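From the methods appendix. Each design record in this collection lists the tokenized structure first, followed by the designed amino acid sequence. Records were kept in a plain field format so they could be parsed without special tools. The example shown here is representative of the layout used throughout.

RECORD:
FOLD TOKENS (216 positions):
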């Protein structure tokens, strides 16, 4: 039995991207303490982190926008004399804050560091609700795919037909730390405030569209 041939079609990729101004910042701040005993390390870290959280709340960050995302306790070991000896305990506690008044990000970082935070290892900017921007990126991706298909059809001397399939794959914010990519500058001087610039971020969508060849 002869297998019927598949209807001829043109399959093309499409890419759509929009640039947006972020309206939310996510900041990750941490406290690391080392003390002779685990109890002392826990107590010291708790006291400092309580002060850091208070500074963030005083700066306008709501309780629902504060999330603990790291809490670890490790023994500090000394191997200098060829044997293993525990010399203390290190407790690490990190919190992520969502800053909705994005212009206050630098001041909040300064306040948290002033309250005792010992690390700042994450800062990213994003849209709180990217729904509309992603919808526009999808539209542009389909427009791009049709433009490619029309060029191929014209060069091949065929007529482009209806869309028979669309597959969306990938897209969103581009990968890489931080996510989304944003402009960030911080001065090292202890007596200077921390300047932070949100810049712009890119949201993108990729699609693959199959078009029938009319009369095929």
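DESIGN:
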């Amino acid at each position: 039995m002869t297998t019927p041939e598949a209807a001829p079609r043109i399959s093309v990729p499409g890419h759509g991207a929009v640039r947006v101004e972020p309206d939310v910042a996510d900041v990750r701040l941490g406290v690391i303490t080392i003390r002779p005993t685990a109890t002392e390390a826990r107590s010291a870290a708790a006291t400092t982190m309580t002060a850091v959280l208070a500074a963030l709340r005083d700066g306008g960050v709501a309780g629902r926008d504060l999330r603990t995302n790291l809490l670890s306790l490790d023994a500090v070991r000394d191997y200098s004399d060829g044997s293993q000896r525990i010399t203390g305990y290190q407790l690490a506690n990190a919190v992520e804050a969502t800053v909705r008044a994005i212009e206050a990000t630098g001041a909040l970082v300064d306040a948290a560091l002033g309250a005792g935070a010992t690390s700042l290892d994450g800062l990213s900017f994003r849209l709180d609700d990217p729904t509309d921007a992603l919808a526009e990126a999808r539209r542009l991706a389909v427009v791009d795919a049709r433009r490619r298909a029309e060029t191929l059809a014209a060069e091949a001397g065929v007529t482009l037909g209806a869309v028979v399939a669309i597959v969306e794959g990938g897209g969103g914010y581009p990968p890489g730390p931080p996510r989304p990519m944003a402009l960030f500058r911080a001065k090292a001087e202890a007596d200077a405030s921390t300047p932070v610039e949100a810049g712009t971020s890119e949201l993108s969508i990729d699609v693959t569209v199959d078009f029938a060849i009319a009369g095929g």
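APPENDIX NOTE: Residues 175-191 have pLDDT under 50 and may be disordered.
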